[in-house]
Amino acid sequence: MGYRLHANLEKNLAPFGGETFNKCFNCGNCTAVCALSKDDNTFPRRYIRYMQLGLKEKMIESVDPWLCYYCGTCSDTCPREAEPGELMMASRRWLTSLYDWTGLSRLMYRNHNAQFILLLIVAALVFLGFIVPADFGFGLLAQHPEAYETVMMEKFTPVETVHLADWIFAGLLSFFLLSNAGRMVYKVMKGQGAPLGAYITQFPKLFVHGLTQKRWKDCDNDVRKHWIRHIFLVTGYATMFILVVVFLPAFQVNDTTVHYTSYFGYYGTAVLLFVTVWMMIDRLRKREQITKKSHATDWTFLVLLFFVALTGILMHLFRIYDWPIGTYVMYMIHLMVAVPMLLVEVPFGKWAHLIYRPIAVYLQAVKAKARERRVGAPSLVTS
Fold first, then answer.
1. What is the per-residue pLDDT across 16-61, written as a single tens digit (0 to 9) for each?
2. What is the pLDDT of residues 220-250, one digit of tens each?
3. Is residue 27 part of a domain?
4. Residue of 12, 29, 131, 342 with fewest CB within 10 Å of its CB?
5. In this structure, is residue 371 part of a structural domain?
6. How many CB atoms lie within 10 A of CB 121?
7. Same domain for 88 and 207?
8. Is-contact 303 261, C-beta < 8 A?
9. Torsion from C-alpha of 311, 316, 317, 322, nearest 10 degrees
10. CA angle 323-325-328, nearest 5°?
11. CA dist., res. 357 & res. 360, Å (int)
12. How far is CA 48 from the centre of its chain?
């Protein structure tokens, strides 16, 4: 199979943070010191060489950037200061923009203002949803003046309406995520000729790595803390998402009592607040390679996630202390932050790596299994 050379690849990668690859002289030091670069996974050197040669198609069909967890050892030891770890990070942003069929990822990564404009547009739509309808939000509240005397969430946001909207929203979010993930699989496996059996036998890896991200533990530079807080962050986020989408009728109560679902909400909120603040402090201190060059999308997601948790707990406290207008307004603000974060950042921004990374590990294993069957050699499958 022939590959076309793209002379303008450097200009395409620069907006994503990949402007240093021409400093590299392919000494191979980065690959030698990388704890995850073994067997057939010889990154970052191989992928950087693709960049230098303009082999765009080779870059697209490779999953090397997703197999890197950016421990920073390669950048610490690079004699040319080519920042190989950051180049892998930039490549993930670039690949995310190529997997996305809507073009929004590319727009967000290339133009920081576009990201904020998209977030503001979605937030404005949520605001209008509370203001305009006569049977929802402040329109419905005007029909029930008694709801200004004590908290009555059902008179502000009927749970059936919110629950239906949650399911529609979850379906829309899943559509964007899965369709982009499908494009990733197509681009990576195009022309590979992997048998169906390879896809089936390696399928459990998709769930194992999706739930645990366990390869992170094998990195150098003592990144175990990153793996641990990442696990907590995902569990906190998943807890809140499940409460809102699946158990909303039990979670959105109409009185000022503490419901049993509140304790799950406390866990999710505490984790999100603690971990996001911890991660933001690390990015401000810039003591590790992974935090030295923060992209705007890195900050946006952390800040939004922090305010989702903060506004959620404030709304809960206002409800407990029976402050009606404070509860209603804070609930609206909470959704004006949460909905844009989920709809813009999850399928098109940094959060998308949570689905792309386990898929990459899975596809790498499929390729290895297919190669084993073709040549009869032992499989170098990622564990």
1. 988 889 899 999 999 999 988 876 678 899 999 999 999 999 999 9
2. 766 778 888 888 988 998 888 888 877 777 6
3. yes
4. 131
5. no
6. 11
7. no
8. no
9. 130
10. 105
11. 5
12. 24
Q: Which of 33-37, 90-94, 218-222, 256-260 has the highest mean pLDDT?
A: 90-94
Omega of the bond leading into 340 within 30 degrees of 0 (cis)? no
d(CA 356, CA 189): 14
Whole-model pTM: value is 0.89
Contacts of 228 (CB under 8 A, 6+ apart): none
Angle at 285 between CA 284 and CA 288, to 5 degrees: 115
Angle (CA) 37-354-330 rounded to 5° is 145
Residue 134 in domain:
yes
Instruction: Give the contacts of 119 (CB within 8 A, at least 6 positions apart).
Output: 300, 304, 340, 341, 344
Quote the CA–CA distance of 206 and 363 in Å, as a whole number: 9
- For residue 190, what are its two tokens? 């195009």
How many of the other CB atoms lie within 10 Å of CB of 77?
14
Residue 153 to residues 146, 191, 211, 256, 324, Cα–Cα distance (Å): 12, 55, 35, 10, 9
Our count of domains for the chain comes to 2
Alpha-carbon distance of 241 to 374, in angstroms, equals 43
d(CA 211, CA 214): 8
CA atoms of 38 and 47, how far apart (whole Å): 14
Pairwise CA distance, residues 119 & 112, whole Å: 11
